[in-house]
Design goal:
about 280 residues, elongated, mainly beta, 20-stranded antiparallel beta sheet, 20 strands
Protein backbone atom coordinates (compact mmCIF):
# COMPACT_ATOMS: atom_id res chain seq x y z
CA UNK A 1 0.00 0.00 0.00
CA UNK A 2 1.28 3.43 -0.94
CA UNK A 3 0.92 6.45 1.38
CA UNK A 4 -2.27 8.49 0.83
CA UNK A 5 -2.14 11.97 -0.64
CA UNK A 6 -4.33 15.03 -0.87
CA UNK A 7 -4.84 18.39 -2.53
CA UNK A 8 -6.55 21.46 -1.06
CA UNK A 9 -7.17 24.67 -3.07
CA UNK A 10 -9.21 27.63 -1.86
CA UNK A 11 -9.67 30.64 -4.15
CA UNK A 12 -12.31 33.40 -4.25
CA UNK A 13 -14.19 31.57 -7.01
CA UNK A 14 -13.41 27.89 -6.40
CA UNK A 15 -12.84 25.54 -3.50
CA UNK A 16 -11.29 22.15 -4.29
CA UNK A 17 -10.41 19.25 -2.04
CA UNK A 18 -9.11 15.93 -3.38
CA UNK A 19 -7.81 12.91 -1.51
CA UNK A 20 -6.39 9.79 -3.12
CA UNK A 21 -5.19 6.34 -2.10
CA UNK A 22 -3.15 3.93 -4.22
CA UNK A 23 -3.22 0.18 -3.50
CA UNK A 24 -1.47 -2.79 -5.06
CA UNK A 25 -3.63 -5.81 -4.13
CA UNK A 26 -1.61 -8.19 -6.31
CA UNK A 27 1.44 -8.16 -8.52
CA UNK A 28 0.89 -5.93 -11.60
CA UNK A 29 -2.49 -4.86 -10.19
CA UNK A 30 -3.22 -1.30 -9.07
CA UNK A 31 -6.25 0.40 -7.52
CA UNK A 32 -6.47 4.19 -7.23
CA UNK A 33 -9.30 5.80 -5.25
CA UNK A 34 -9.87 9.56 -5.42
CA UNK A 35 -12.51 11.52 -3.50
CA UNK A 36 -13.34 14.98 -4.82
CA UNK A 37 -15.27 17.86 -3.26
CA UNK A 38 -15.69 21.32 -4.78
CA UNK A 39 -17.59 24.47 -3.80
CA UNK A 40 -18.42 28.06 -4.72
CA UNK A 41 -18.59 28.34 -8.54
CA UNK A 42 -18.91 24.56 -8.97
CA UNK A 43 -20.48 22.44 -6.27
CA UNK A 44 -19.63 18.72 -6.11
CA UNK A 45 -19.88 16.79 -2.87
CA UNK A 46 -18.06 13.52 -2.23
CA UNK A 47 -17.51 12.43 -5.83
CA UNK A 48 -15.54 9.17 -5.79
CA UNK A 49 -13.41 8.00 -8.72
CA UNK A 50 -11.97 4.47 -8.65
CA UNK A 51 -9.36 3.39 -11.20
CA UNK A 52 -8.33 -0.25 -11.53
CA UNK A 53 -5.57 -1.60 -13.78
CA UNK A 54 -4.28 -5.14 -14.21
CA UNK A 55 -1.48 -6.30 -16.51
CA UNK A 56 -1.07 -10.00 -17.26
CA UNK A 57 1.29 -9.83 -20.21
CA UNK A 58 -0.88 -10.55 -23.26
CA UNK A 59 -4.03 -9.47 -21.42
CA UNK A 60 -4.66 -6.05 -19.94
CA UNK A 61 -7.70 -5.02 -17.94
CA UNK A 62 -8.89 -1.60 -16.83
CA UNK A 63 -11.92 -0.34 -14.90
CA UNK A 64 -13.19 3.15 -14.07
CA UNK A 65 -15.99 3.69 -11.55
CA UNK A 66 -17.39 7.15 -10.76
CA UNK A 67 -20.15 7.62 -8.19
CA UNK A 68 -21.53 9.68 -5.31
CA UNK A 69 -22.01 7.49 -2.20
CA UNK A 70 -24.79 9.46 -0.49
CA UNK A 71 -27.18 10.24 -3.39
CA UNK A 72 -27.12 9.04 -6.99
CA UNK A 73 -26.41 12.35 -8.70
CA UNK A 74 -24.01 10.53 -11.00
CA UNK A 75 -22.84 6.96 -11.36
CA UNK A 76 -20.67 5.83 -14.25
CA UNK A 77 -18.45 2.85 -14.82
CA UNK A 78 -16.44 1.36 -17.64
CA UNK A 79 -14.70 -1.97 -18.00
CA UNK A 80 -12.08 -2.60 -20.70
CA UNK A 81 -10.17 -5.78 -21.45
CA UNK A 82 -7.48 -6.03 -24.10
CA UNK A 83 -6.23 -9.49 -25.00
CA UNK A 84 -4.45 -11.04 -27.92
CA UNK A 85 -6.47 -9.85 -30.95
CA UNK A 86 -9.51 -9.13 -28.73
CA UNK A 87 -10.92 -5.93 -27.22
CA UNK A 88 -13.98 -5.88 -24.97
CA UNK A 89 -15.39 -2.68 -23.51
CA UNK A 90 -18.49 -2.22 -21.35
CA UNK A 91 -19.82 1.05 -19.93
CA UNK A 92 -22.90 2.31 -18.14
CA UNK A 93 -24.04 5.74 -16.96
CA UNK A 94 -26.94 6.84 -14.76
CA UNK A 95 -27.57 10.22 -13.19
CA UNK A 96 -30.25 12.35 -11.63
CA UNK A 97 -31.06 13.70 -15.11
CA UNK A 98 -31.08 10.57 -17.27
CA UNK A 99 -32.00 6.89 -17.10
CA UNK A 100 -29.51 4.06 -17.17
CA UNK A 101 -27.59 3.88 -20.46
CA UNK A 102 -25.43 0.86 -21.29
CA UNK A 103 -22.81 0.59 -24.01
CA UNK A 104 -20.80 -2.41 -25.16
CA UNK A 105 -18.04 -2.82 -27.78
CA UNK A 106 -16.51 -6.12 -28.80
CA UNK A 107 -13.73 -6.35 -31.38
CA UNK A 108 -11.83 -9.38 -32.68
CA UNK A 109 -9.05 -9.30 -35.25
CA UNK A 110 -7.66 -12.65 -36.36
CA UNK A 111 -6.02 -13.81 -39.56
CA UNK A 112 -9.10 -15.74 -40.68
CA UNK A 113 -11.88 -13.77 -38.96
CA UNK A 114 -12.69 -10.20 -37.97
CA UNK A 115 -15.66 -9.13 -35.89
CA UNK A 116 -17.06 -5.85 -34.54
CA UNK A 117 -20.11 -5.43 -32.32
CA UNK A 118 -21.40 -2.12 -30.95
CA UNK A 119 -24.44 -1.92 -28.66
CA UNK A 120 -26.06 0.97 -26.84
CA UNK A 121 -29.35 0.79 -24.99
CA UNK A 122 -31.50 2.30 -22.28
CA UNK A 123 -34.65 1.02 -20.62
CA UNK A 124 -36.79 1.67 -23.72
CA UNK A 125 -34.57 1.53 -26.81
CA UNK A 126 -31.58 -0.35 -28.17
CA UNK A 127 -29.25 0.08 -31.15
CA UNK A 128 -27.04 -2.77 -32.32
CA UNK A 129 -24.40 -2.74 -35.08
CA UNK A 130 -22.39 -5.81 -36.07
CA UNK A 131 -19.89 -6.42 -38.83
CA UNK A 132 -18.03 -9.65 -39.50
CA UNK A 133 -15.54 -11.07 -41.98
CA UNK A 134 -14.56 -14.72 -42.26
CA UNK A 135 -12.12 -16.47 -44.57
CA UNK A 136 -12.23 -20.28 -44.58
CA UNK A 137 -9.43 -22.27 -46.26
CA UNK A 138 -11.25 -25.59 -46.86
CA UNK A 139 -13.47 -25.26 -48.76
CA UNK A 140 -12.37 -21.82 -49.90
CA UNK A 141 -15.05 -19.42 -48.76
CA UNK A 142 -15.16 -15.75 -47.77
CA UNK A 143 -18.15 -14.30 -45.89
CA UNK A 144 -18.89 -10.77 -44.74
CA UNK A 145 -21.94 -9.35 -43.00
CA UNK A 146 -23.04 -5.88 -41.92
CA UNK A 147 -26.17 -5.69 -39.78
CA UNK A 148 -27.92 -2.94 -37.83
CA UNK A 149 -30.86 -3.46 -35.50
CA UNK A 150 -32.99 -0.75 -33.90
CA UNK A 151 -35.32 -1.90 -31.11
CA UNK A 152 -38.11 0.11 -29.59
CA UNK A 153 -39.87 -2.00 -26.99
CA UNK A 154 -43.25 -0.69 -28.17
CA UNK A 155 -42.81 -1.97 -31.75
CA UNK A 156 -41.09 -4.63 -33.84
CA UNK A 157 -37.30 -4.44 -34.40
CA UNK A 158 -36.00 -2.61 -37.48
CA UNK A 159 -33.31 -4.70 -39.21
CA UNK A 160 -31.02 -3.52 -42.01
CA UNK A 161 -28.70 -6.22 -43.35
CA UNK A 162 -26.07 -6.57 -46.08
CA UNK A 163 -24.35 -9.90 -46.72
CA UNK A 164 -21.77 -11.15 -49.18
CA UNK A 165 -20.10 -14.45 -49.95
CA UNK A 166 -17.44 -15.73 -52.35
CA UNK A 167 -17.27 -19.51 -52.50
CA UNK A 168 -15.25 -22.01 -54.49
CA UNK A 169 -17.72 -24.76 -55.42
CA UNK A 170 -15.54 -27.00 -57.61
CA UNK A 171 -11.80 -27.23 -58.10
CA UNK A 172 -11.18 -30.35 -60.16
CA UNK A 173 -8.90 -31.15 -63.05
CA UNK A 174 -11.63 -30.74 -65.69
CA UNK A 175 -14.09 -28.52 -63.82
CA UNK A 176 -13.72 -25.28 -61.87
CA UNK A 177 -16.63 -23.30 -60.42
CA UNK A 178 -16.83 -20.20 -58.25
CA UNK A 179 -19.85 -18.29 -56.93
CA UNK A 180 -20.31 -14.80 -55.54
CA UNK A 181 -23.45 -13.62 -53.72
CA UNK A 182 -24.65 -10.24 -52.47
CA UNK A 183 -27.81 -9.90 -50.39
CA UNK A 184 -29.37 -6.68 -49.15
CA UNK A 185 -32.66 -6.15 -47.31
CA UNK A 186 -34.40 -3.50 -45.24
CA UNK A 187 -37.87 -3.12 -43.67
CA UNK A 188 -38.74 0.43 -44.76
CA UNK A 189 -41.96 1.03 -46.70
CA UNK A 190 -40.50 3.00 -49.58
CA UNK A 191 -41.05 2.68 -53.37
CA UNK A 192 -37.66 1.01 -53.94
CA UNK A 193 -36.24 -2.46 -53.45
CA UNK A 194 -36.90 -3.96 -50.03
CA UNK A 195 -34.66 -6.95 -50.71
CA UNK A 196 -32.12 -7.59 -53.44
CA UNK A 197 -30.14 -10.76 -54.15
CA UNK A 198 -27.38 -10.85 -56.76
CA UNK A 199 -25.62 -14.14 -57.47
CA UNK A 200 -22.96 -14.82 -60.08
CA UNK A 201 -21.55 -18.27 -60.87
CA UNK A 202 -18.49 -18.69 -63.07
CA UNK A 203 -17.72 -22.14 -64.50
CA UNK A 204 -14.77 -23.44 -66.48
CA UNK A 205 -15.62 -26.81 -68.06
CA UNK A 206 -12.56 -28.25 -69.81
CA UNK A 207 -14.44 -31.38 -70.86
CA UNK A 208 -17.13 -29.40 -72.67
CA UNK A 209 -14.55 -26.74 -73.57
CA UNK A 210 -16.54 -23.71 -72.56
CA UNK A 211 -16.76 -20.87 -70.05
CA UNK A 212 -20.12 -20.12 -68.43
CA UNK A 213 -21.15 -17.02 -66.48
CA UNK A 214 -24.60 -17.16 -64.91
CA UNK A 215 -26.10 -14.13 -63.19
CA UNK A 216 -29.24 -14.32 -61.05
CA UNK A 217 -31.11 -11.33 -59.66
CA UNK A 218 -33.93 -11.82 -57.15
CA UNK A 219 -35.99 -8.76 -56.24
CA UNK A 220 -38.18 -8.70 -53.12
CA UNK A 221 -37.84 -12.48 -52.86
CA UNK A 222 -40.22 -13.01 -55.81
CA UNK A 223 -39.04 -11.66 -59.17
CA UNK A 224 -36.09 -13.68 -60.49
CA UNK A 225 -34.08 -12.75 -63.56
CA UNK A 226 -31.42 -15.08 -64.97
CA UNK A 227 -28.80 -14.05 -67.51
CA UNK A 228 -26.30 -16.52 -69.00
CA UNK A 229 -23.23 -16.06 -71.15
CA UNK A 230 -21.46 -19.06 -72.70
CA UNK A 231 -18.15 -18.92 -74.55
CA UNK A 232 -17.16 -22.22 -76.18
CA UNK A 233 -13.65 -22.67 -77.50
CA UNK A 234 -13.90 -25.90 -79.50
CA UNK A 235 -11.44 -25.80 -82.35
CA UNK A 236 -13.96 -26.91 -84.98
CA UNK A 237 -16.94 -24.74 -84.08
CA UNK A 238 -16.44 -22.08 -81.39
CA UNK A 239 -19.55 -20.16 -80.39
CA UNK A 240 -20.96 -17.53 -78.04
CA UNK A 241 -24.43 -17.72 -76.51
CA UNK A 242 -26.26 -15.18 -74.37
CA UNK A 243 -29.58 -15.90 -72.68
CA UNK A 244 -32.05 -13.94 -70.59
CA UNK A 245 -35.06 -15.12 -68.60
CA UNK A 246 -37.22 -12.67 -66.64
CA UNK A 247 -40.69 -12.66 -65.00
CA UNK A 248 -41.96 -9.32 -66.32
CA UNK A 249 -44.77 -8.88 -68.84
CA UNK A 250 -43.45 -6.83 -71.74
CA UNK A 251 -45.25 -7.22 -75.06
CA UNK A 252 -42.20 -6.12 -77.03
CA UNK A 253 -39.69 -8.21 -75.10
CA UNK A 254 -40.09 -11.99 -74.65
CA UNK A 255 -39.70 -13.63 -71.25
CA UNK A 256 -37.08 -16.08 -72.53
CA UNK A 257 -34.45 -15.06 -75.08
CA UNK A 258 -31.32 -16.82 -76.31
CA UNK A 259 -28.93 -15.49 -78.95
CA UNK A 260 -25.99 -17.52 -80.28
CA UNK A 261 -23.17 -16.84 -82.70
CA UNK A 262 -21.80 -20.05 -84.22
CA UNK A 263 -18.69 -20.38 -86.37
CA UNK A 264 -17.75 -23.49 -88.35
CA UNK A 265 -14.19 -22.98 -89.52
CA UNK A 266 -13.94 -25.90 -91.97
CA UNK A 267 -16.94 -24.61 -93.96
CA UNK A 268 -16.16 -20.95 -93.31
CA UNK A 269 -19.79 -20.40 -92.32
CA UNK A 270 -21.20 -18.23 -89.54
CA UNK A 271 -24.71 -18.66 -88.10
CA UNK A 272 -26.75 -16.42 -85.81
CA UNK A 273 -29.65 -18.44 -84.35
CA UNK A 274 -32.10 -16.60 -82.10
CA UNK A 275 -34.68 -18.30 -79.87
CA UNK A 276 -37.70 -16.65 -78.26
CA UNK A 277 -40.34 -18.01 -75.94
Amino acid sequence: MFPPGGLNIDTPWLYLYAAHKLHQPQHSTYLLTTELTTGKALSIKNLVVELFYKDQGNEKEGKVHIYTPATTYLQASTFNRLGRNVLHSYSEVISLWNQLVKNEIHLENNERAKYLCFKIKNTKQEFNFTGSYQNLPMPKKTNFTVKTVWKDYKSLPVVLQFEGQIEELKNEKMLYQKRGTLNFRHPFKVPILQSFLLQETFTVDKKQKHYLLETKVLINGVDETVQTLVLAYQRENPYICAGLTHPYNYSLFPKDVEICILTQSHQNVSKFPIKFS
